[in-house]
């Protein structure tokens, strides 16, 4: 079967399409024909050896996919021909993948296979961040950095579905259109966002900041929090890992909370399906994954560069078997 191979940590240019054997298929796993695979920032970091969860080389990347069941364990809820999303962790950038039942996720008829591949990483991360780590409540206000990307648009939609107000932070007017289409009530440019947030909240500040960017925005994000506000650290697409002067936390009684969804679920596989079911309950409230670029498998390097160079709006997908 065709698959993407990385033989080193030299970066996106090292990606190659190769022919490899079909995956070893354990008795407790679901064998899936992959139709679409989601590409995310951790894939970029792994290609350079910079992610906290790093497979040994050579490896097939790809943490999230959608496709059709080939075979499933007897007595499981899955059957041949069923449409599913799945979270293999690795190996998803291939024509076929074997996934534990705990990480295989049933799809309602209303969700297409391209949309399904855009869901697992971003939406489950943001659900865990906002509702579980952030304790977001209806009526609160969320500030979302990088709001035109895959994580950002997912955060905007989950905040909206949970009854919160979403203020999107973007870097360009073009990205502002993407954030608004995702459902953000307000959109501000990154340059000067602190003052814009102060005006939008009548000086109160926001209850939650979701930050996948890091870098030099971090201090102004802290300053944008209302009393008892929570800043959720998702990642560092801006490159620089910021530091916190903890006196800022006590002066306004605010929190900085880390969000490592992968680090949470990997030793606790039983949490993935309940979180998926929780997410599916929110979908009728207007969640619709904004799919951006869809590329063939052969354009994996370009797909990773779309994300690394912050050109992507919405979710970047690889197409392995068109619907």
Description:
The radius of gyration is 19 Å and the shape is globular. The strands form three sheets. Strands 3, 4, 5, 6, 7, 14 and 15 form a seven-stranded mixed β-sheet that branches. The protein is an alpha/beta fold and 323 residues long. The protein has two domains: 148 residues, Quinone Oxidoreductase, Chain A, domain 1, CATH 3.90.180; 141 residues, Rossmann fold (3-Layer(aba) Sandwich), CATH 3.40.50.720. The model has no long low-confidence stretch (mean pLDDT 93). Helix 3 packs across helix 4. It is 28% helix and 26% strand. Strand 14, helix 11 and strand 15 form a beta-alpha-beta unit.
Q: Nearest-angstrom radius of gyration?
A: 19 Å
**Tally of contiguous helical segments:** 11
Level-2 CATH architecture of the largest domain? Alpha-Beta Complex
**Strand residue percentage:** 25-35%
Number of strands: 15
CATH superfamily grouping of the largest domain = Medium-chain alcohol dehydrogenases, catalytic domain
Q: Biggest β-sheet, characterized?
A: 7 strands, mixed
Low-pLDDT residue intervals, each spanning 5 or more residues: none
Helix content: 25-40%
CATH class of the largest domain: Alpha Beta
Q: What letter string, H or E per element, gives the SSE order?
A: EEEHEEEEHHEHEHEHEHEHEHHEHE
> How is the CATH topology of the largest domain named?
Quinone Oxidoreductase, Chain A, domain 1
Q: What do the pLDDT scores average to?
A: 93
Shape: globular
- Structural domain tally: 2
């Amino acid at each position: 079967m065709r698959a993407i191979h990385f033989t080193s940590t030299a970066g996106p240019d090292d990606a190659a399409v190769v022919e490899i054997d079909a995956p070893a298929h354990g008795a407790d796993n679901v064998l899936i024909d992959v139709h679409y695979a989601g590409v995310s920032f951790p894939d970029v970091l792994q290609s350079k050896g910079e992610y906290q969860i790093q497979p040994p080389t050579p490896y097939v990347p790809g943490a999230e996919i959608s496709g059709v069941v080939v075979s499933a364990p007897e007595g499981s809820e899955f059957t041949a021909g069923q449409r599913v999303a799945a979270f293999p962790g690795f190996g998803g950038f291939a024509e076929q993948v074997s996934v534990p039942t705990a990480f295989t996720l049933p799809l309602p008829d209303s969700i297409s296979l391209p949309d399904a591949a855009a869901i697992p990483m971003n939406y489950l991360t943001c659900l865990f961040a906002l509702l579980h780590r952030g304790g977001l409540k209806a009526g609160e206000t969320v500030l979302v950095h990088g709001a035109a990307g895959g994580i950002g648009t997912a955060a905007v939609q989950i905040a909206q579905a949970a009854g919160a107000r979403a203020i999107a932070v973007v870097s360009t007017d073009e990205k502002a259109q993407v954030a608004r289409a995702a459902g953000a009530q307000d959109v501000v440019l990154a340059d000067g966002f602190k003052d814009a947030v102060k005006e939008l909240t009548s000086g109160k500040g926001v209850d939650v900041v979701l930050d996948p960017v890091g870098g030099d925005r971090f201090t102004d994000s802290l300053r944008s929090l209302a009393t008892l506000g929570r800043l959720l650290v998702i990642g560092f697409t801006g490159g620089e890992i910021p530091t916190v002067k903890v006196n800022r936390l006590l002066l306004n009684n605010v929190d900085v909370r880390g969000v490592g969804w992968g680090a949470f679920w990997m030793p606790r596989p039983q949490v993935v399906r309940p979180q998926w079911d929780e997410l599916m309950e929110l979908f009728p409230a207007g969640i619709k994954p904004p799919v951006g670029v869809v590329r063939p498998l052969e354009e994996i390097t370009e797909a990773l560069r779309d994300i690394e160079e912050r050109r992507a709006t919405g979710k970047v997908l690889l197409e392995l078997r068109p619907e």
